[in-house]
Amino acid sequence: MCKKPKILLIYTGGTIGMIKDSETGSLHNFNFNDLLEYIPELNLLDCFISTHSFKSPIDSSNMKPMHWVKIATIIEENYQKYDGFVILHGSDTMSYTASALSFMFENLSKPVIFTGSQLPIGDLRTDAKENLITSIQIASLCKNGEPIIKEVGLYFEYKLYRANRTTKINAEHFEAFDSLNYPPLIISGVKLSVNHQALLKPNSEKKLIVRKNLESNILLVKMFPGIEEATINHLFSFSDLKGLVLETYGSGNITNEKWFVKAITKLIERGIPIINVTQCSGGSVDMDIYRTNIQYRKLGIISGKDITTESALAKLMYLLGQNISANKFKTTYETSLRGEMK
Ligand code: ASP
User: What mean pLDDT, rounded, does the chain reach?
Assistant: First the structure.
């Protein structure tokens, strides 16, 4: 690599690939093969760009594990032919897809950069051009014949983040994403300033393994004051339930009312892993701080530490799909696999 990198651009859907109909004002997808017509600047980049578009691009609110597998397969099939990959994706669920892919790719040693935009590419004030052009430049970065980024990243509004650390935080601002528990990997100013210390440094000798088995019979429950016993019992009694992510208060605090402890105990007895993540956007779960929590730690609730909810769900789906033995599940989950937690 390095001479003139080959980048594969994969379009899955979302605002970035849309233009406004001048008569009706409504948004529709443009033919992705005509990309150069909308962004002629792409011709100036020092790399070869090929494109691949979903036959029927989708709004990211319709994304599901089946589509994650589809994206992973396109990358897998083209992994040797290209030096980097840029995925254009709707911003709404981009953090979920990008987190899932980060787990699905074991030993990834090339850049996979997700991006999108808040305004369509054809809009005069669009953020799509900068997001796309810089993402391609980032995917092309290399040093001593090796790519600089060897992980799944998410680029939006002048920052490249580790994808599995991101959350969509704003529906209107161009700065739509944040990564509250991990610093940006690159800040784009006059130059691209790379935070080398923050990058993942995988062993590039190892062969890429793409894990496509994901278990989606899981549940996300956000605790709130007044949540009813009957509601919880109803949700937890789902017979096919394989895992639970519990969004708790502050540093992972959970009510210690008897009925709730009982409901959790029953799940644990059924062998269902429960992940404790905080509702706060920044900071970490620490189940040792308050006495109310110690019983939950003893019961075997798994600490999500400083993971995002998006990443916690993706990691749970991924690990449940890997047939990990029950006694190893907790330690494996509490270990950082792709830099998603401390
Ligand atoms: N609804 C769109 C989507 O996520 C929004 C966007 O592209 O930013 O697909």
Answer: 95
Cα distance between residue 87 and residue 17, in whole Å: 11
**Is the confidence at residue 105, as pLDDT, over 70?**
yes
- Give residue 35's pLDDT: 79
Q: Is 68 left (phi over 0), alpha (psi -120 to 50) or beta?
A: alpha
Whole-angstrom distance, CA of residue 119 vs CA of residue 81: 32
- In this prediction, residues 284-288 reach a mean pLDDT of 90
- Candidate of 16, 28, 61, 114 to mutate for ligand 1, largest count of ligand atoms within 8 Å of Cβ: 61
Q: Which residue among 28, 59, 62 is best mutated to probe the pocket of ligand 1, counting the most ligand atoms within 8 A of its Cβ?
A: 59
Q: Indicate the SS3 state at residue 218.
A: strand
Half-sphere exposure of 201 (CA within 13 A, CB side): 4
The pLDDT of residue 33 is above 80: no
Q: Which protein residue has the closest C-alpha to ligand 1 atom 8? A: 91
Compute the distance from residue 90 Cα to the ligand 1 centre, in Å. 4
Using DSSP, state whether 226 is helix, strand or coil.
coil
CA of 265 relative to ligand 1 center, distance in Å: 39
The predicted structure's pLDDT at residue 18: 85
More confident residue, 182 or 145: 182
Active site residues: 15
Q: For atom 4 of ligand 1, which residue has the closest CA? A: 90
pLDDT at 3: 86
Q: How confident is the model at residue 1 (pLDDT cuts 50, 70, 90)?
A: low
Q: What domains sit in the chain, N to C, each tagged with a CATH number?
A: 6-210 (3.40.50.1170), 218-333 (3.40.50.40)
For ligand 1, the distance from its centroid to the CA atom of residue 204, given in whole angstroms, is 34
